[in-house]
């Protein structure tokens, strides 16, 4: 699909997340919403299925999630009737843990390969097989310094249009939405590719 990014961002400036989701669905033939079931993921998933109940939901399950995250995921999949498509790494976590001696620290030379195996490779494989033309995601500009340089609408290196409806929302906005719609949340979350919440995992810097 071809979208004038500057015009799209100008059009969507000041719009609500729900209006941005509606715009994205209207301008897409094969939309996809991605999730990792981290805290506040209920918000983007609820908005997406309100606009398009059968939208494909991509979950790249690294195999290193907490028990609470897996329970949270199952609850949301059931409660929102998500059309979930799960991709997993080619190598099991148990095998990788033996070969790499557990999860490599971020300053370990193996960490880049670890991130490629558990997140980037399965994500790229999913995009190649599902072939979406638009990717809805939950990034917000207040999450990392890198994300402050982004915008609501951008393009991946493969030309997939990326739309971040929650880009300008704060945590308080998210809490209010959860309360208004009686949605669950789960803070017991672990991303093995990050050492700090302010560190990028690579999806939005490399794809």
Average of per-residue pLDDT values: 92
Shape verdict: globular
Classify the helix fraction into a percent range: 40-55%
Strand content: 5-15%
Question: Biggest sheet, open or closed, and with what strands and sense?
Answer: 6 strands, mixed
The ordered string of helix (H) and strand (E) elements is HHEHEHEHHEEEHH
Rg, nearest Å: 17 Å
Strand order of the largest sheet: 3-2-1-4-6-5
How many distinct beta strands?
Answer: 6
Stretches where pLDDT falls below 50 for ≥5 residues? none
Structural class: alpha/beta
How far the N terminus sits from the C terminus, by CA atoms, comes to: 17 Å
- Described by its quaternary structure, the protein is single chain
Output the number of helix runs: 8
Pathway: Sulfur metabolism; hydrogen sulfide biosynthesis; sulfite from sulfate
InterPro entries: PAPS_reduct_dom (IPR002500), Rossmann-like_a/b/a_fold (IPR014729)
Organism: Marinobacterium maritimum
Pfam family, one: PAPS_reduct
Quick tags:
alpha/beta; 207 residues; single chain; six-stranded mixed beta sheet; 6 strands; 8 helices
